[in-house]
């Protein structure tokens, strides 16, 4: 019985010991969920020796100013995205900011951390300079975009005007085609011409008879040959051929 009692007494002590681990020179207290090896994660409480805390120093003024600037920026962003009840949200956020700044006034940090925070003001100036540069770049980019939009709108107007002109010209061409069809009396794509008479079939014979009555035929034939080979006659024949081709195509 005494051995069982001793075992039961040792069990809580082992559990308490298992809840603490040493990481470097710092002792970390683990939660019950972590000691039980469950899947749920929990916060870890770090215990630091009092000898180390003696070297800690309070936050510098520049660090507190940087934190204040960051909080004000976050508050402005939240208020710009929120809808109604901005006054109540702003009041609560300002209260949180005030409490945090009050805690930062008495908060002490390790020297290494303090050295890192001393450069916050210079980093803040660099970020502000980058912000101004980005703002100027965005302004120039917006101007270029406006010019491109204006050019695009003018080109769109020119294209629309050209489309209107094309429609007008197309309608005029259709009207001219209708007039040509009426002139040549086209019906269903066939040229309606009168039938040839018997006299027209005898035209070459009559031509010979007429030439036989002329005493000097050779000069007349030369003149006719010159007239037939002239550029005016060729142009007229070409025009007639093109007219027939268009009629066949229509």
UniProtKB/TrEMBL annotation:
Alphabetical keyword list: Centromere, Chromosome, Coiled coil, Nucleus
Location of this chain's protein in the cell: Chromosome, Centromere; Nucleus
Compositional bias segments (type: Basic and acidic residues): 24-37
UniProt key word Transmembrane: no
UniProt xrefs under InterPro entries: CAD_CENP-Q
Domain of life: Eukaryota
Residue ranges of coiled coil: 159-186
Region (Disordered): 1-46
Keyword Magnesium: no
TM region(s), chain numbering: none
Entry's family note: Belongs to the CENP-Q/OKP1 family.
Name the UniProt record assigns to this protein: Centromere protein Q
Source organism (scientific name): Pteropus vampyrus (Large flying fox)
Gene encoding the protein: CENPQ
């Amino acid at each position: 019985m005494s051995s069982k009692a001793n075992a039961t007494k040792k069990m809580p002590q082992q559990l308490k010991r298992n809840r603490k681990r040493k990481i470097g020179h710092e002792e970390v207290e683990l939660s019950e969920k972590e000691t039980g090896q469950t899947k749920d994660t929990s916060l870890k409480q770090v215990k630091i020796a009092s000898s180390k805390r003696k070297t800690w120093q309070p936050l510098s003024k520049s660090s507190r100013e940087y934190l204040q600037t960051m909080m004000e920026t976050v508050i402005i962003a939240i208020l710009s995205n929120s809808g109604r009840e901005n006054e109540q949200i702003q009041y609560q956020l300002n209260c949180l900011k005030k409490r945090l700044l009050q805690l930062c006034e008495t908060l002490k940090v390790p020297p290494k951390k303090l050295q890192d925070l001393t450069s916050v003001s210079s980093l803040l100036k660099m970020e502000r300079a980058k912000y101004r540069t980005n703002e100027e770049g965005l302004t120039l980019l917006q101007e270029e975009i406006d010019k491109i939009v204006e050019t695009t709108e003018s080109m769109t107007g020119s294209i629309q005007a050209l489309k209107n002109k094309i429609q007008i010209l197309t309608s005029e061409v259709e009207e001219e085609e209708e007039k040509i069809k009426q002139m040549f009396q086209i019906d269903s794509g066939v040229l309606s011409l009168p039938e040839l008479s018997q006299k027209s079939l005898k035209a070459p014979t009559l031509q010979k008879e007429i030439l036989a009555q002329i005493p000097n035929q050779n000069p007349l034939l030369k003149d006719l040959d010159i007239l037939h080979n002239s550029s005016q006659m060729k142009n007229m024949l070409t025009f007639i051929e093109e007219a027939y081709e268009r009629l066949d195509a229509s």
